[in-house]
């Protein structure tokens, strides 16, 4: 996206990142009613709208903390597109059609669409990765958790009662296993990486 | 072979490859698309796990806070939707009352006045005179009971006995007016009007009402305007004039 200047609405992204209740509340008051209306008008319920909004904000939070999300468009447009896209995907899923992500909704080439597309793909990947992680065996889960939570591999090895070399090898093999699970998932090819 | 690949991926990310290995690895990334794709996924997963576990607490705190705000927002929304029903009902009830009241005033103010708005007479009392007591009593009772046919008959009889009595003529006229005998009524009223009795102005008022009942508003107006300011019915006449004008 080059060197684009951040939009003043970056404050909403930063607020989410800081878990600022005031900002989160402001997002609900200002931007959520439009989303609720849209979902209600498109065969959804208020309850479903609540879930879509919540999931979308979690995705934004995750992208902001993992990828240093920089907003180059109004938050309103970005947020609405994300929720809309999420809802249309939900509809497609529930009607058992093949899930094709974002194409129609997010194909227009402006900042809001581009950014919403990026976040949307990021979110889909997160969901897929979390799903596949859950499929790993407990030994891998525990090792990976320990590895990423603890800074030093030596400590990890000590805590798990294995050698340092084994812990390192095991880590790469567990991520390798996860890589295979992800790559063999049908969802994986539907997500534009 | 596969295992070796992942160990290599990890070593590359950890920058644990020597120069030779590094060159070979990067060459393979450029030439082997499956290898490359595997590596990109491995790298993404590495980042995902790193973020997932390092930010677990912050992420959990955010989710909890978000859920609280979300629930408060949507429950408030639901609650206010529920509350809105009685509130709306209350609003509609008030609106209906206002409309009804407005309607009442507007109706009174702007609707065309009708004879029935004005034909409220006080009960008459005629039996003080001593003469023709029976007839007078009959006339009085009939008139007060709004039996105007009987009242008219009796007043006619009384007029025959006392042809100059303006009071009989007035009540006879009113009875005729009630019976829609406008010609007779107006003849009697004109008679009283052209006389000099205390009923003179009363006669003009009822002439006006006769025209009103016949919906001849223009004549009604012209007649009412001739009622002098000091007359008993002057105020009522002015009101009626205002409504007709």
TrEMBL record, chain A:
Signal peptide: none annotated. One of its GO terms (molecular function) is DNA-binding transcription factor activity. GO terms for biological process: DNA-templated transcription initiation. The lineage of its organism: Bacteria, Pseudomonadati, Bacteroidota, Flavobacteriia, Flavobacteriales. This is RNA polymerase subunit sigma-24. InterPro entries: RNA_pol_sigma-70_dom (IPR014284), RNA_pol_sigma_r2 (IPR013325). It comes from the Bacteria.
UniProtKB/TrEMBL annotation, chain B:
The chain crosses the membrane at residues 89-107. Keywords: Membrane, Transmembrane, Transmembrane helix. Gene3D superfamilies: Tetratricopeptide repeat domain. This is Tetratricopeptide repeat protein. It comes from Neotamlana sedimentorum.
